[in-house]
Amino acid sequence: MSIEIVDPVAEAEEASPDRRTLRRLGWVGWISIAVVVLALLMAILGPILAPFDPNQGDLSFANVGPFGQHLLGFDGQGRDVLSRLLVGARTAIFGAAAVALVAVVIGTALALVTAWFGGKVDATASVVIDVVFAFPGILLAILAAAVFGPSLFSAGLALAIAYSPYVARVLRGAALKERAMTYIAALEVQGFGAWRLCVKHLLPNISSLIVAQGTILFGFAMVDLAAISFLGLGVQTPQADWGVMVSEGKTSLLQGYPLVSISAVLCIVAVVAAVSFLGDRLDTSSKAVNR
Amino acid sequence: MIAFLGKRMAMLLATLLVASFAIYGALYLAPGSPIAALTGGRSVPPEVLAQLEERYNLNEPFLTRYWLWISGVVRGDLGESIPLRQDVSTIIGQRIGVTLQLVMLTAAIIIIVGVGLGIVGALGRKSVDFGVLLASTVSAALPAFAAAVLLQFVFGVMLGWFPVLGTGDGFVDQLRHLTLPALALAATSVALVARVTRTAVRDELDKEHVQTAVSRGLPWREVVRRHVLRNAAIPITTVVGITIASLIALAAVVETAFGLNGLGAYLVQAAQNKDFATVQGISLVLVFAFVITNVIIDIAYAILDPRVTLGSRAQ
Amino acid sequence: MSALLEVRDLTVQLKMDSGMREVITGTSLTIAQGEAMGLVGESGSGKSMTAKAIARLLPDGADVQGSVTFDGTDVLALDGDALRKHRAQVAVVFQDPRAHINPVRRIEDFMTESLRILENVPKADAARRAAAALEEVGIDDPGKRLRQFPHELSGGMLQRVMIATALLSEPRLLLADECTTALDVTTQAEVMAILDDLRRDRGLSMLFITHDLELAGAVCDRTCVMYAGQVVETRAANLLHGDPLHPYSAALVQARPDISSTAERLVAIPGRPVSAFEAPSGCRFAPRCPHAEDACRADEQVLVELDGGRVRCRRASELRGRLLDGAHV
Description:
The structure holds three protein chains of three kinds. Chain A is an all-alpha fold. Helices cover 76% and strands 0% of the residues of chain A. In chain A, helix 10 packs antiparallel against helix 11 (259-289). Chain A is elongated, with a radius of gyration of 23 Å. By secondary structure, chain B is mostly helical. Chain B is built from twelve helices and two strands. The radius of gyration of chain B is 24 Å and the shape is flat. Chain C is α/β, with parallel strands linked by helices. In chain C, the strands form two sheets. An eight-stranded mixed β-sheet of chain C has the order 6-7-8-3-9-10-12-11, sandwiched between helices. Classes of the chains: A mainly alpha, B mainly alpha, C alpha/beta. The interface between A and B is large, with 39 and 51 residues.
């Protein structure tokens, strides 16, 4: 006896999540974007912007505070801290981006394959994924460093492998849902191949989820990579890298000169916080799309 | 429930087996001969070389070697560290205490502060809730090594309230030495746990069965205890379990930063020294600990949620 | 029979994102001892909120004016222990039993909770009383059911458990808020039969809330029809179906499809039901009423006595007996 009520306002709210996301960014969101843009500029233009040679040190200036063009003073080896920070952005940011990218690629491929074929393929893949899950990223990176020798590459690859199960798990659900839709079956019947259907149809429909996951992973990758370099098992000192700088600056810090370690830490924390915030916003809006 | 747990245990045992296989097999991925990897490129006298070949059965096929290793592991024999000339199990035994203390102290902080803040935020007034949200956002932005460095500087060097390096002697002194490391390790986890707790309790407060309890005239304290918190305990326990499991690897960073001679710190040193047997041994222990923690999470979940049947726990 | 529950001039405003919004306007009703009153209306009519106001279960920030008196006590002024004691006397049975029972505790725990905590009844005694209550609502093997978890029982069974639990506190008034809406028709009939039996056996007063006019007519002594936050008609239940006084009630009666007749089109009321704060001034039903005149839209309508009931329509006596004809008058 009741009459169906259609609420036009609620329908409009559901329609365009992107517009809503942009509106919900707020001032924190815009600051985050600014931080990310700044970080990217540092990463790309670092060596050009650096006023001094980041690897050239004069021990007579060791731990001297800021003056003149040396806006952040010198580190324990007499090198200009600001220059090292600018150059160090490269490995920190591009390294993390590469890790996130590779993890997303592997994870997406796994998710698509298991969602498409289902059955036994899905079951075996799930077992493999669960096993890799048992290895925390840092542990895998330490193992890789022991086996292949410490380097940014071995650490990065290890992290990418450690993260892919997480991506695969998240995407698998969405991919399965999409796979089960009738339009896919219709296209299959018409003779379209699996590869084409995956790329042309499954992929675009989970793309917002992929981007959201990638952003979140970037944050994790940056932290883990910096931690591994801090341990001496990633980027090797004396190469400039934020994680390495934290480690290098420790002796100075314990003597009361914290500038090196703290500035590197602040750079990392700022970028990670900004990316996490944006990734979180992306994630909620992509969840709304894929509901 | 029994079937559910049985299935999980089987899965985890399989995981452990495959993981141990991977850890053992990694040795053979190393460039150069296994001997070179074992000795870390150091030159050793030929008798030692012969001993090594004997010990590690390098003349046997790979699977046999793996089997011999894993059966040794089960008996407690984790091999020998070449640079230190000690049994790996001895090395582990000396250092596991520190790591366990650190992880337990961190876990205590995460549970008490994280869950506590979450509950306070969910049940309290808007201003309290906002404060909790702010604190957790700040805490979330501090990954372990960042927090370690900042804490070391502010509380160790500048204020001098806590020691910065080393493990200390005696119970109280050890606790003092572990305070900053535990806080550093707990930082991001506390934020995550607080957030999840707050959401879980909030969600539960809105549920209809809570309204039923109120409509029957039960005192609010009882309603919160028996229905809100009891039900929210399910997702809270899961997230607490997962964060504690993740501590196992992260402890390595904090131990290194604070100069604690725990398992994690030594793992890093061993990796740098190419002390492969030790790396294998400690890695195995850490993966084992990780797997066991997951088993405990699963058991706790099955106890708390009677709806769980054969599927895996809801994410 | 003296009035057990007396609601007078109840006006409720709820706190919404857009501000305070009125959902109930000047509603009054009385329920005598042992009487079953049906409260019928569509979504937004305010019927559920009326029940919530009586049970003191309104959401935070709600503004309540008017009075609710239960057995002489001012319900709205109660607090603390007195409020808890009142709750024991007014039992509520909710719509979706599965959502209203804690899924991680056993049925026995759910049923005996208030007995054990509020009245300090020992566990064994409480369990026995719970088992007896389960039998009373027609559940076999109560011992087994008590040990089970909610997810192991069907919706119909859970609703019986809810009713049984409501009885345990020996209430004098039962508020049934759409308690059969989530059930299939057969189960619905069973649950209604149980409620009816209980009422007669125990002399329980009942406020039965539903959107189904005929269902209310089957079980209740009197029926109260609400629209847009106001009571538009109160009448003896058996008379309402055949001789409604208000155009809205008539429309509800006509809109129910009758399986024995063939119609060309299903009758529907044009427009959609509104909440109190969305309603126009003057007669709130006027926009949808086939008998509305200018005077209806201009003036606020009041309740008038007519044939033993009350109706909020200025044309009621004029339209008497002709509302079900179907043609516009």
